[in-house]
Amino acid sequence: MYSKNFLERLSGSVEQLRAEHREKIEVPYSTPQGPEVEVIGKKVLQFAANNYLGLANHPAVVAAAKKALDRYGYGTASVRFICGTQEIHCELEQRLAKFLGTEDAILFSSCFAANEAFFATIVNDPLGDPAAAPDFIYSDELNHASIIDGLRLCKGERVAKRIYPHKDLAKLEAMLKEDAGKSRRFRIIATDGVFSMEGTIAPLPELVALAEKYEALLFVDDSHGVGALGKRGAGAPEQLGVHGRIDVLSGTFGKALGGAMGGYLAGKKELVDFLRQKARPYIFSNSLPPVVAATTIAVLDLLEKEPQIVQQLHDNTVYFRREIQRLGFTIIPGEHAIVPVMLGEAKTAQAFSRALLADGVYVVGLWFPVVPEGEARLRVQISAGHTRQHLDAALAAFAKVGKELGIIQK
Ligand SMILES: Cc1ncc(COP(=O)(O)O)c(C=O)c1O
After folding, report:
1. Among candidates 186, 111, 192, 123, which has minimal Cα distance to 154?
2. What is the pLDDT of residue 23?
3. Does the annotation count 287 as an active-site position?
4. What number is the average pLDDT over the span 306-314?
5. Which atom of ligand 1 is nearest to the CA of 113?
6. Cβ pair 294, 74 in contact under 8 A
């Protein structure tokens, strides 16, 4: 029975978010995801999607999905180990491993599930030695919520958590050194490949070197990198010249690679074999719909045949980053399609995003507590699907609103 007290407390909690302007508002779109969308009867340019390669509604991707539905049906009605493994799941796992430069890969229903599975399964398992010392995990302070929650699932006595300041290699090394004499089982360094609030890339070559020097396993969540970075779209490791040298990669199919859903972990065969037997979100949750598996393979085929899509994203990003700065805006420098336009106060970012929307450009504003106080920003996300006209229209709207609000000079 729902008690009055219970319901009132739930509503009170939401009310509080509303009062603090932290309520998340879901606005239903009436069109597929793409550079131009319609929302509440209004056409807007989409600059807030993780649709980096513009594949969410790409004709070849939609056609592949339709074909896959006819070939494999809709659902598996099972988890993987009972009767939910179709050949297409195995094919995608092999294909991903090849694409990412790892020995093997394993699919999950989301990257969130994959990240939780990785930390909880490795850390909590005694691996034949119930008296083993804890694992030491070194995690960047800006890592995604799914890594944070993965660490929360680790039993207290099995883990020593070290949170290092964002991308601070000197502090990380100091922590690794400080822990050198302590009794431990394994060490894991965990980082996002691309940080989604900053659009910056983790210093992967340096992290590879530290992991080797201190005998730590390097875990990289490349959800925003895969598809979007590197010549072939193989992600942040490819972009930074360490393709094939990351011990464990996780990622999503919900962003550049078609934007539907699903995630993976990729690494050594022994790791993948172990996770297939022990990872609870894998064992006790339904398999990825075969249509998603087959369509993700079609996306990888498309990337192989048409690497110019990745180049187009890169060109669009370089253009937008250059032009927005030329207008006088401050951005966080970088190479990624996430372009944070820094505005300072939350009030300014809120007014700015409202005015942009009125002018037909949708971007997301981020402010405290999502980002530090005084660092409110608009997060522009570029897509290969944007034409030069889309980019110029967004830049013109930024210029107009920026002048109206006194952010840039008239
Ligand atoms: C860095 C990072 N990791 C993991 C996820 C979760 O991915 P999924 O939607 O596949 O659960 C996201 C999505 O927001 C992300 O940005």
Report:
1. 123
2. 85
3. no
4. 97
5. 11
6. no
Which pLDDT score is estimated for 127?
A: 96
Taking only the tens place, the pLDDT of each residue in 147-168 is 999 999 999 999 999 999 999 9
d(CA 101, CA 7) in angstroms, rounded, equals 50
DSSP letter assigned to residue 320: H
User: Do 337 and 385 form a contact (C-beta atoms < 8 A)?
Assistant: no
Contact 343, 355 (CB under 8 A): no
Whether the Cβ atoms of residue 218 and residue 400 lie closer than 8 Å to each other: no
Check residue 58 and give its pLDDT.
97
Whether residue 134 is preceded by a cis peptide bond, meaning omega within 30 degrees of 0, is: no
Compute the distance from residue 262 Cα to the ligand 1 centre, in Å.
10
**Within a 10 A sphere around the Cβ of 344, how many other Cβ atoms?**
15
How many beta carbons lie within 10 A of that of residue 210, not counting itself?
A: 18
pLDDT mean over 293-319:
98
pLDDT at position 390 is: 98
List C-alpha distances in Å: 359 to 14, 16, 397, 402: 30, 30, 7, 12
Residue type, 323: E
Count other Cβ atoms within 10 Å, centred on residue 229: 28
Kindly tell me if the per-residue pLDDT of 352 is higher than 90: yes
Q: What is the pLDDT of residues 62-93, one digit of tens each?
A: 999 999 999 999 999 999 999 999 999 999 99
Which domains are delineated in the chain? 19-48+307-404 (3.90.1150.10), 59-305 (3.40.640.10)
> Which secondary structure element, helix H or strand E, spans residue 165, and what is its range?
none
Distances in Å between the Cα of 326 and the Cα atoms of 88, 164, 254 are: 48, 34, 32
Looking at residues 199-212, what average pLDDT do you find?
98
> Mean per-residue pLDDT for 361-390?
95
Rounded CA gap, 242 and 130, in Å? 35
Ligand 1 pocket: which of 143, 144, 255 to mutate (most atoms <8 Å of CB)?
144
Token digits of residue 386: 């944007």
With a 6 Å cutoff on the Cβ, whether 263 touches ligand 1 is yes
Three-state DSSP state, 374: coil
